[in-house]
What does this fold into?
Amino acid sequence: MCFRGNGGKPDGILDAAVSRSTVTRDDLAHAIYARIPGLSRADAKALLDCAFEEMLSALTSGEDVRLRGFGTFRIRSKNARPGRNPRTGAAALISSRRVVVFKAAPHLKSAVAASGASPIVGDTP
It folds into this structure.
């Protein structure tokens, strides 16, 4: 949500999505469309898709994606390790892999903490 000098209150464009507890790509494209006069819905979606493609390209080439005030996406390599099949209990080797990790920026952390939002059921700190 964007805050535009209105006392720190959300401007309402993503309020419906927030009430569902999930913001989708279409919700973000609509928010871009609503904020930029003269931009068509198709152009807003193309702009968002372009941003995601650039982020994907950077991550797959091993670069970090740092969004100031939001957070940092980075690739982390995980070594192979022993594990177990939860259904059968049989030992299994978990192969080495690369995963995307996200570290929230202090601004995002403080905004979420100040929002007073209740934690999602099943989330643990």
